[in-house]
Amino acid sequence: AAQLVESGGGSVQTGGSLRLSCVASGDTRRTYCWGWFRQVPGKEREGVAVIDSDGSQSYADSVKGRFTVSEDYDKYTLYLQMNNRKPDDAGRYYCAEQASCLTPAAEAVAGGNLSDFTYWGQGTQVTVSS
């Protein structure tokens, strides 16, 4: 099984930028159907920025134009660049990967079933201050 470890969380002022990283290890059979998800207390975990195996990207409407997801195959690392942060961006951000590419990225960011994302990191907390 793959292990995913996120880093880069912290506090940022409204309008500021932050970059999260997710390093994968433990299983060389990668699908690269992975992405970033966010959860706040009392709400369901939601897809923020997700990549399909062909590299195509999908974003939640709330972050389009501000967040960019990218990947470095050589480093087995997924990034999330977050610019122009807003208070609603706060939450715990998780990196997750599908063992088989069953859920398209577009579905994952549109409230689709996330059960196909088999491997999850422990998350990294992001807060936004005004």
What would you say this structure looks like, in words?
By secondary structure, this protein is mainly beta. The protein is 3% helix and 48% strand. It has one helix at 105-108; strands at 3-7, 10-13, 18-25, 34-39, 46-51, 57-59, 67-72, 77-82, 91-98, 117-120, 124-129. A hairpin with a 5-residue loop joins strand 5 and strand 6 (57-59). The chain starts with a strand and ends with a strand. The model has no long low-confidence stretch (mean pLDDT 94).
String of helices and strands: EEEEEEEEEHEE
Rounded to an integer, what's the Rg over CA atoms? 13 Å
What structural class is derived from the secondary structure elements?
mainly beta
How many strand elements? 11
Biggest sheet overview:
7 strands, mixed
Distance between the termini: 40 Å
Mean pLDDT: 94
Question: What percentage of amino acids are in beta strands?
Answer: over 45%
**Outline, from the CA principal axes?**
globular
Proportion in helices: under 10%
**H/I helix tally:** 1
Regions with little confidence, pLDDT below 50 for 5+ residues: none
